[in-house]
Amino acid sequence: MSLHVLDPVRVVAITDRTMMGSTPAEFGAAIERAVAGCPPGSVLVQVREKDLDGKPLLELISIARRYTRVIVNDRVDVALAAEAIAVHLPEDGLSVADARAQFPGGIIGVSRHAPDAETGADLVHLGPIWETPSKPGKAALGLDALRAPHGTAKLVAVGGVDTPERARDAAAAGADAIAIIRAAWEGSSLVPFVTAVDAGLALRS
Asked: Can you give the pTM of this predicted structure?
């Protein structure tokens, strides 16, 4: 798959059913609200529901794909079955090489908690940039981490990016996109975050 599909991505919205709603219908409605009005391709939904087995996880991915492109957390087998464009590997998960062997042609994302220019991945989530309750005990890396070399991967700032102002600052510092959880599902649309990332990118040019 061509990596150009990542070019328009500005926001990775990471799912959390405790905020979105416990039923498939509520899950879908939350995604529909989040992407409403956003430019096509600007929002990538990362389905990260670690408590679910394959069948219910596949159902949620299928629902998400009605509204936008999807990256599947950790489960290469489910990503293949769902025809998702990407799989995201936690830092202690499969190696990038193993994932590529199982997911040929797919996009590979990884999480990193320190700058790393040699991941071999297509998408790197780096954070936490700011302190965040989703990573208790993890020290914030700060914006300077986004200025470090990261190879050719698309760099995604994660952790505490809970306002459009922080989204703009992250993009201005070096991020190509931002990843959010709470902010994705508490509001009505991600348009302000997409616009803020674009504004930050413009400050770099």
From this structure: 0.96
